[in-house]
Design brief:
elongated; single chain; transcription regulation; RNA_pol_sigma-70_dom; mainly alpha
């Protein structure tokens, strides 16, 4: 065995060790994502895509990266799962359309009043019952409607703006724009009502699922889902300038 082949063999062994050690991370991320997806999504498909992401992370990771392997792998795993979800988009177009309508009316009201849109006023303008409105909020949480920047072609194909971006895959201009987007998104989240801010923090930063958040807030899981959906709709309305 020459030096080059020996080095490659060592690399493969190191990658195998990383995969074995961090395999539980795939399961954790998959079940966290399942917390906002309908039962029709197969967690096994997510985990299979996540394992591919983990394998790629193990092959490509270098020790000179600023982030730890777990952080780097988490980005790759989550990205692979989201790619799989986008590839097999199950969300009806009507769901995307209704959320867009609620976000647009929310934006109009907030522009007119300079305050958080009142739920009753949004329902009144749209001619929705409370049950219909809450269903839209639930759908906003379940569907992949988090893209605040992707071109809206009316087909409902939207990516996740709150997903972690792998900056290594971006060019200088894309990285700059993503940094600006992140700052604008953080600022917009800071303008949300306090409870909506808390839910967003617990879900996206602490990676708690809806049931766990409900225990913290002392409310039902379905109520957390509605608060989360309301936050997403409000963010969509307030981040309209970032849409392509």
């Amino acid at each position: 065995m020459n030096v080059a082949s020996g080095y490659l063999q060592l690399q493969r062994e190191d990658a195998d060790q990383l995969v074995r050690k961090h395999a539980p991370l795939v399961r954790r991320i998959a079940y966290h994502l399942m917390g906002r997806l309908p039962p029709s999504v197969d967690v096994g498909d997510l985990m299979q895509a996540g394992m591919i992401g983990l394998l790629e992370a193990a092959r490509n990771f270098t020790t000179d990266r600023a982030a730890s392997f777990e952080t780097y792998a988490g980005i790759r795993i989550r990205g692979a799962m989201l790619d799989e979800l986008r590839r097999t988009d199950w969300t009806p177009r009507s769901v995307h359309r209704k959320v867009r309508e609620v976000a647009e009316v929310t934006r109009q009201i907030e522009n007119e009043t300079g305050a958080d849109a009142d739920t009753a006023e949004v329902m009144k303008r749209l001619g929705m019952t409370a049950e219909e409105y809450h269903q839209v909020l639930t759908d906003a949480t379940s569907a992949r409607l988090l893209s605040l920047t992707a071109p809206d072609d009316g087909e409902g194909g939207e990516a996740g703006a709150l997903d972690v971006v792998d900056h290594d895959s971006l060019g200088p201009q894309d990285s700059f724009e993503q940094e600006n987007l992140s700052e604008a998104l953080a600022e917009a989240i800071g303008t949300l009502p306090e409870r909506e801010q808390l839910v967003m923090s617990l879900y996206y930063e602490q990676e708690m699922n809806l049931k766990e958040i409900g225990m913290v807030l002392g409310v039902t899981e379905s109520r957390v889902c509605q608060i989360h959906g309301q936050a997403l709709v409000r963010l969509r309305a307030r981040m309209g300038d970032w849409r392509g």
